[in-house]
Amino acid sequence: MYEYIKGEITYISTEYIVSDHNGLGYKIFMPNPIVMSSKQGETVQVFTYQHVREDQLTLFGFPSMEEKLLFTKLLNVSGIGPKGALAILASGAPEQVIQAIEEENETLLVKFPGVGKKTARQIILDLKGKLQDVVPDYFPNLFTDPAKEKGLDDTALDEAVMALQALGYSEREVKKIRPVLQKESLTTDQYIKKGLQLMLKLK
């Protein structure tokens, strides 16, 4: 029903954001809401998917149409519901998920929450070769070596570090994971996701 909602981000939690559109606050569940922390108070367009059940109506949101498309394709896999698809996107960058599917990498897929060997095989069976409309423009370097594509521009990493500190992680904790993050060439959002994964391992 809703293709997207454009409104002011008035609240951000670990699971969802609230977007105010014409005085209505929409509760929108996202893979990693905290990546929107720098945009709180701003008007942002969020691409949405409305999930309707007999006793529940839920909005899921994504920063890009491509992530929304990947989410909807994951929903077509037997055994994966909206929360499962959201958990997969929250745990790995979309291009990682797509690459694992295209390369039939079950080892990587089973690392995502709620994905066992049977589900991993089903994901590959249902989606391999069917993600062309997600890949081309959004992930142009999907199958290239990140080491060869590094542009030595640390802006995205610096922004991610500041976001992690804003979330309550200490400078010492962030310093521990920064060398690992520097080995990759990612966007700010991807650095934040990777940083959160590494922080969990430090606990």
Automatic annotation (TrEMBL):
InterPro entries: DNA_helicase_Holl-junc_RuvA_I (IPR013849), Hlx-hairpin-Hlx_DNA-bd_motif (IPR003583), NA-bd_OB-fold (IPR012340), RuvA (IPR000085), RuvA_2-like (IPR010994), RuvA_C (IPR011114), RuvA_C_sf (IPR036267). The keyword Cytoplasm applies. GO terms for biological process: DNA recombination; DNA repair. Its main location: cytoplasm. It is found in: Cytoplasm. The keyword DNA-binding applies. GO terms for cellular component: cytoplasm; Holliday junction helicase complex; Holliday junction resolvase complex. Residues 152-203 are annotated as: Domain III. Residues 72-91, 107-126 form the Helix-hairpin-helix DNA-binding motif class domain. It comes from the Bacteria. Keywords: ATP-binding, Cytoplasm, DNA damage, DNA recombination, DNA repair, DNA-binding, Helicase, Hydrolase, Nucleotide-binding. GO terms for molecular function: ATP binding; four-way junction DNA binding; four-way junction helicase activity. Homotetramer. Forms an RuvA(8)-RuvB(12)-Holliday junction (HJ) complex. HJ DNA is sandwiched between 2 RuvA tetramers; dsDNA enters through RuvA and exits via RuvB. An RuvB hexamer assembles on each DNA strand where it exits the tetramer. Each RuvB hexamer is contacted by two RuvA subunits (via domain III) on 2 adjacent RuvB subunits; this complex drives branch migration. In the full resolvosome a probable DNA-RuvA(4)-RuvB(12)-RuvC(2) complex forms which resolves the HJ. Has three domains with a flexible linker between the domains II and III and assumes an 'L' shape. Domain III is highly mobile and contacts RuvB. Belongs to the RuvA family. The RuvA-RuvB-RuvC complex processes Holliday junction (HJ) DNA during genetic recombination and DNA repair, while the RuvA-RuvB complex plays an important role in the rescue of blocked DNA replication forks via replication fork reversal (RFR). RuvA specifically binds to HJ cruciform DNA, conferring on it an open structure. The RuvB hexamer acts as an ATP-dependent pump, pulling dsDNA into and through the RuvAB complex. HJ branch migration allows RuvC to scan DNA until it finds its consensus sequence, where it cleaves and resolves the cruciform DNA. HAMAP family: DNA_HJ_migration_RuvA. This is Holliday junction branch migration complex subunit RuvA. It comes from Jeotgalibacillus alimentarius.
